[in-house]
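Reviewers of the previous submission asked for a worked example of the structure-prediction workflow described in the proposal, so we include one complete record here. The input consisted solely of the amino acid sequence. No template or homolog information was supplied to the procedure at any stage.
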Amino acid sequence: MKNKTIIYFMVILFLGIGLIGAWGYKTLYYDEKQSTSENIDGFLKENNYMQNVSTKEIVMDTTTDEYFAKVTFKDEPNNEYEIYQTGSNHFKIVGYKDGVQITNKKEGKYIKR
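From that input alone, the workflow returned the following structure tokens.
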């Protein structure tokens, strides 16, 4: 009888830990990633950039634990842009060509600081 009680307790304990872990993952990572993706999509649509997007990938910056988007546009396939949400409705776009940051607006027309 005592062994069954211990087994039931352990099963309930492990299920509880698993449920708390799944809830924590969803709350801390999944929801934040979805929210960032939706906000960046809204920014791209608002600025009429969405039709020019070739690829978009949501990535986590491990140094700041924040999500951002890596985007390439159809009309600038050699440039890669990183779009950061810096406020509730503010975005920063940084462009790179061959791994070097683009500072000239003529080389990267989507740069916005």
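Residues 19 and 39 are 29 Å apart (CA to CA). We consider this example representative of the routine output the project will generate in years two and three.
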